[in-house]
Amino acid sequence: MSDTRIRAALAVVIRGEAVLLVRRANRPDAGLWGFPGGKLEAGETVAEAAIRELAEETGLTGTVRASLGTVFVDHVTPGYRLDAMLCDAPRGEPVAADDAEEAAWMPLADVIDRAIPMSRDVDTLAAKALEAIRTPRL
């Protein structure tokens, strides 16, 4: 049986002690903070989609650093398969666009502690991204 979930990419960007988040304007997470991201377009890789969505929703230019894994969202129909990519966006300040109502650098501690209203697994992916940045590769 094939997976009927919608395939999407997330751009997880950490700069210093802050993480880039957007407040969603549309369902299923309207009003909640989450990572820039969206559906893959035909023929697009996850990395390409993450970078495109980062630019569309925040105006920032970035590069993919590593995969952070996959999150499955099954509490809505249809479900989503979200592939999270750790990205670098070293310059500029975010400006909300596309389906993002706001875009901002949020303190990592607030995100990991779930001190703001956010989508599922944002805290987990932020912690995973921080660990990936702090752990040197062999």
TrEMBL record:
<dbReference type="InterPro" id="IPR020476">
    <property type="entry name" value="Nudix_hydrolase"/>
</dbReference>
<keyword id="KW-0378">Hydrolase</keyword>
<feature type="domain" description="Nudix hydrolase">
    <location>
        <begin position="4"/>
        <end position="129"/>
    </location>
</feature>
<dbReference type="Pfam" id="PF00293">
    <property type="entry name" value="NUDIX"/>
</dbReference>
<dbReference type="InterPro" id="IPR020084">
    <property type="entry name" value="NUDIX_hydrolase_CS"/>
</dbReference>
<protein>
    <submittedName>
        <fullName>NUDIX hydrolase</fullName>
    </submittedName>
</protein>
<dbReference type="InterPro" id="IPR015797">
    <property type="entry name" value="NUDIX_hydrolase-like_dom_sf"/>
</dbReference>
<comment type="similarity">
    <text>Belongs to the Nudix hydrolase family.</text>
</comment>
<dbReference type="InterPro" id="IPR000086">
    <property type="entry name" value="NUDIX_hydrolase_dom"/>
</dbReference>
<dbReference type="GO" id="GO:0016787">
    <property type="term" value="F:hydrolase activity"/>
</dbReference>
